[in-house]
Amino acid sequence: MAKLSGEAVDLIAEKTGVPAYKVRGVMREAWRLVLAECKRGRPVVLPGLGSFAAKTMPAKSMMIREGTAPVLKSFPARRKLTFVPKRSTKWL
Fold it and tell me: Distance between CA atoms of 63 and 61, rounded to whole angstroms?
């Protein structure tokens, strides 16, 4: 069963003996670092877990049905954050 972020913070705080507010702050800063590095175009590798990277999705056009007549709509190119787990964690 997956842990919620609050539960994960409490579990880490309990196991390490560090107050929960400090654990939460460290986790928040780590996530900010991952996002900042990915925005700069650099992948972030977390040993034993996997890697985060920003991926550019191309612009596309799609036929969308609105009412009785289909309409061609265009969607601009965008970037998204991807995570690739390490091979050993895929089998858990």
Answer: 7
Q: Are 45 and 51 in contact (CB under 8 A)?
A: yes
Half-sphere exposure of 27 (CA within 13 A, CB side): 16
Provide the Cα torsion 49, 52, 58, 59; round to 10°: 110
Give the domain extent around 46.
5-90
CA-wise closest residue to 43 among 31, 34, 53, 35: 53
Give me the average pLDDT of each 10-residue run along the chain (92 residues). Answer: 71 92 90 93 91 93 82 90 83 60
Domains of the chain: total = 1
Output the domain CATH number for residue 58: 4.10.520.10
Question: What is the C-alpha to C-alpha distance for residues 46 and 83, in angstroms, rounded to an integer?
Answer: 10
In the Cβ-directed half-sphere of 2, how many Cα atoms lie within 13 Å?
Answer: 2
